[in-house]
């Protein structure tokens, strides 16, 4: 499928990878994850090179994964280290692909391309997600039946909020507020700002809960930053008009998308708030609200849109372009540029779906 | 898909089109229907030209349909007339396809081809379906998992009744009765007539209910007329042998089929009787009996047949031809001729499935 | 699909074929089976040559099968012998394909290729399955969602037993025992033998039930013989070490596989034991145990493996080869050789899936 390969993607939350094999398909490749006794997480191709059984159905034995068909065992580097049958001989071809996998910043990152290019320094940081940032995170995972690029379109696009999230997140003032697009390293900021407005219902509720009634107009901001391949960080907040933004209510969020197939994606999200940071009970509401907004409002639409596209390429459809699309269009153009550059620069990497046999 | 385009099809019953969007796929094109406040029904391509969301998930606002993603509103001609975001500018490319749609004779008719050729005078009339005809109608809609041509084969074919509808509609006398094929304008009549026979069980029951016992043999007729593209009208009735047909029990019916896809169809039917025309309760039985005969008897067979064909063309299968097939074969040949003529005469119309973006 | 055609396959158990039509797809061809009043079983193409309805939905009338659509009746040779409509004329093209079908040795065998080559002398015999053999059979049928060649790989492969059937059938001594491969006519034996070992749990249980406690080590053997196209016979047994095998506990089994499609198979099995041959109740346990081992253990793995292969050819995947694979690899190579020979030697037979119309 069309997706960058020589770049870090989120593969899993660290808590998902343990001593029970985790099966996940990323960029159409079937991968099995497990954790070694020293804590190192491992990602291997999920297909035994002997008779092609899926390794995730086997079990973890002494830092190896045992094939469920004939009991061959593979270590974290993908080498077969044990064969229980007859003389126990293991041919050199009995190897599965091993993927660079790094646990960093509270996420497990995987490199799907040429392993020799996997530089951990390229992993994107989210400072607000780290302890001591003053922001309390709520996190989640969703499996989404939509291509990752429609998800990115949606996540950098503030203009859909007025309609799709009309009940809790919409702010008519923001729809007609000020839009700014900014480059930031290899990222793109899409910012909207409204002065003297009525805040979205969710922020009105939160302000009244944590700070009490108010009778002045507010400022409201919603800012999304895209980093390649498909990583979004966000600031959304409100403050009484005229006061500095720092004292306002704000969430800093990330929405990290990893392609599964042409029509489905993995979605890792965190909503981090600077208010009621000691309130455990509020976490439950934040999770419920986030899942409601995404699953009930965005995803149903993205799935229907995906079905409408029926495999056709976005630009071939000659989309009508609006002023509110400038950010999303820049992200699409930059993604197209990176994809073309990767295809031009690198010899093909063996990325045959679900094949892991090393000749 | 292979179907005539420059011709009127039934799109919906008038009662189906109101101020809640109706989504329906016709000839593999996704269409959304709604009714304007002046009563005019509207048919638009069901895909927003901005980000390709399906419009039917939106709502009707002041004679426009609002896209569920970004709130663009389209009028009955398919023009975008409102954008709620930022400066509200609307590019000229923000248009969806609008289909000619006419409410006439108790049906909503749509023109799937070149709109400049859409002549309302070409719509087929069914006089027996109009008030004052002396016939009381019962109507219904069925979604059928079979190609429209197998349905037409079935509907002009009396010979299957003996086997498929062996319980209520079969008449052994008719199976060996007289068959007549007649051209009628662009239509084809397939008629069967049996003298001095035992009527089908359903007519026997109806006669006894409405006229009492009888001990003489009867005449029975079953006549189907095809009009292109896939419209069937029917006369079926019984009368005591030797008496004029006019005084008999008769139903005049239509079976109007509109292709949905290669393997599915929309089916609009009416059974109109000249007996017990004031009996509301009988309508329930007529509907139940019609649905039983079609859903339980015909459709299960047509679906299985469709599966057997597995996409192969009918004539390529070298069907064995029987005398009882003459009518159905003439209808197939005439349909083939009209399809070839349309392909030869007209430049291609933009009929890309579910695409409605106008450049 | 890729499968031998000029060879006998098992089509059904004799008890499956009676006067209710049996529908079964073999090598991607839809076939209907029924039994004539003289006891002869019949196999016909399951598609009427008139309007292509599936014949299995019809009924058996006087040694013919009646089409459920228009009532044409076909005899055991596939000739149409009756048309109930109009003048009753039947064109010579109204014929369906008839397949050679032979009931022999307690099985119904079908020939899918050129009928002129169908020599009953080529049918494989299983003497242990015949009455008087001293072995009591338990039989069954399973529909399997895996290609027949993965099933054969599995059935001639003793090395998977240690892992997949770890609970009841595994024997660590056998895993490291002696392996022998032998040619036997057009068949291939794959044998394993372990001396002085602990028997599999199932044999331990059976020995204690039927012969009482024992405190000496045992010998254990497991031998599978493949015959083309996909027929496996097996000997598995135990005996006290040093005593002749004849006095031991043994089952002689067959596992007869017939391709349905690229991804599914029919599986006819028999487990025949030389102990407790008068114990009816034990049959229930044998059936349950066999279905557990195959459905819960083997099939789930084969289905997952099939999905992993995703249509790719086995050798193109460059499988790592182990010493324990020698038998399965010889069977694969011999099957490849027979397939190539058949393709080279014979003109193509009309085997269009589900087509049975004879021009």
UniProtKB/TrEMBL annotation, chains A, B, C:
Keywords: 2Fe-2S, Dioxygenase, Iron, Iron-sulfur, Metal-binding, Oxidoreductase. One of its GO terms (molecular function) is dioxygenase activity. This is Aromatic ring-hydroxylating dioxygenase subunit alpha. The keyword Metal-binding applies. Pfam families: Rieske (PF00355), VanA_C (PF19112). InterPro entries: Cholesterol_7-desaturase, Rieske_2Fe-2S, Rieske_2Fe-2S_sf, VanA_C_cat. The keyword Iron-sulfur applies. It comes from the Bacteria. Residues 8-110 form the Rieske domain.
